[in-house]
Amino acid sequence: MERLKHVVTQIAITPDCRLSELPLLHRSLLPLLSLASSIYRFSLFLRRRLYFSGLVHQRRLPVPVISVGNLTWGGNGKTPMVEFIARLLDEAGIGPLILTRGYSGGDEAKMLHRHLLQTSARIGVGANRIATAASMFERHGYVNSCDTLSEKLSSPYKSVSGPKDERIGVVILDDGMQHWRVLHDVEIVMLNGLMPWGNNHLLPRGPLRESPSALVRADIVVIHHADLVCVPDTQLRMIESTVHNIDATLPVFHSRMAPSHFFEVKNPHSRLSPRTVQNMVVLCVSAIGFPNAFAQAISKIGPLHVDRLDFSDHHLIQADVSFFQR
């Protein structure tokens, strides 16, 4: 299964003009993947019509909802952005609730919980996010922060006087762009600056969950990995141009990942300087959506050489530890 996932991923990042360079196994899957993409396109169209025509009821939560999502699978900086927004809200005295599906054992949910342990952020995990939200509201209470949200966020680093309100004031919908059962007040769309559209095909023939035209629903676009783009002025401008051809008024921001430290797996609270790996041979082991960015970020720190062992997104690597320890 891991090999098949790798093959499909390789096809998804290969432009049509270079398909002939792929191995025979990869090319033999193209008709099947193209058929599956056509079925996916139709199901997406049907689902969209059901929701946006009102035939399927959308629910409004009693607090503002910020959706953080993407157009392509993995590697868009979605989860770090969710954490960033949660911290911003917490510092402004607004209690955030993060709603996430909890893919593959909830690895991202566990990471968010660990990172946000000292904040007022709550994390609700479950496929039925409306039911999860209702349960969290009942347990922790909620307060509609619509009237004070803009005022509090205008000076987020101003100290909050008095005890913090522990009630939930805002919901952050992790991976929310294609989750239409909940109405969104703010739609933030993350784009991978190194591969914004992939090969321009929908899943599973390509990495697109929706076509770029879906950006008409966005309120904010963030181009992630902007610091890793080879020719920033040209490539970032091209992405921004595509975005503004869809909506000329859409604000576009850039983001990057800045490694602050390493930690030991058995001791998550340990802190090792990034300079630790300088002039060393490093093996990057990952199970994330876009491992290229991870390897590039490590390379920028200055190791002597970087080797890679890339698993598919959310792959549970416990069984493989003995293999890459050799």
TrEMBL record:
Keyword Nucleotide-binding: yes
EC number: 2.7.1.130
Enzyme superclass (EC): transferase
Listed GO CC annotations: membrane
GO MF, one example: ATP binding
Keywords: ATP-binding, Kinase, Lipid A biosynthesis, Lipid biosynthesis, Lipid metabolism, Nucleotide-binding, Transferase
Keyword Lipid metabolism: yes
Pfam families documented for this protein: LpxK
GO process terms (BP): lipid A biosynthetic process
Pathway note: Glycolipid biosynthesis; lipid IV(A) biosynthesis; lipid IV(A) from (3R)-3-hydroxytetradecanoyl-[acyl-carrier-protein] and UDP-N-acetyl-alpha-D-glucosamine: step 6/6
Family matches, as NCBIfam families: lpxK
Family matches, as PANTHER family: TETRAACYLDISACCHARIDE 4'-KINASE (PTHR42724), TETRAACYLDISACCHARIDE 4'-KINASE, MITOCHONDRIAL-RELATED (PTHR42724:SF1)
Name used for this protein in its record: tetraacyldisaccharide 4'-kinase
Naturally occurring in which organism (per UniProt): Elaeis guineensis var. tenera (Oil palm)
Gene name of the record: LOC105046825
